[in-house]
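All the exercises in this workshop are built on plain-text protein records. Sequence and backbone structure share a record, each on its own labelled line. The question running through the whole workshop is how a given chain folds. The record below serves as our worked example for the rest of this section.
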Amino acid sequence: MRTMNISSELQAQSGAVRVLLALLCVIVTACGDGVTAPSPGAALNGYAGRWSGTVLVIPFVPPGLGLPTTTQSQPLSFTVSADQKVTEIEVGYNFNGCSGVKTFSGLNLAIANPPNPTSPGPAFGYGSETRDGTNYTQIAGWFTSDRTASGTAGFVEFSGCGSGGGNWNATKQ
């Protein structure tokens, strides 16, 4: 009789664990603010390809000088290789009298999976090399689906122009 009770209790606990695991799977894949899982076709090539979009660059204004008077939408593009590495980034800027395009090629940036379900999605990041902390560009991005990505760009201490930065959105071409 005691063996039957233990067996019934184990079956009930096993069922509860299965329900809990299923619930956790639903939460992990369904939560978030618009983040979608890659489509079944994405498993074949992941994020590989050319991505392009725009970054809205806003000059950083020192406190007490008022709000920025202009914002400039600039081109942004990056390439993801078949082995899921960001290999090139091009980002335009136009703020406080400085404008141009920064190109970073020959990269080998891994796309990291988010550490928890509240992360926006798999991500990458890059900071340009600088010897004295000036003319520094930093790009961070995350994939919101197998066709869309978002992120931030920062331009730090550009000679004679100060700093600027903003958010970007891109789509896979």
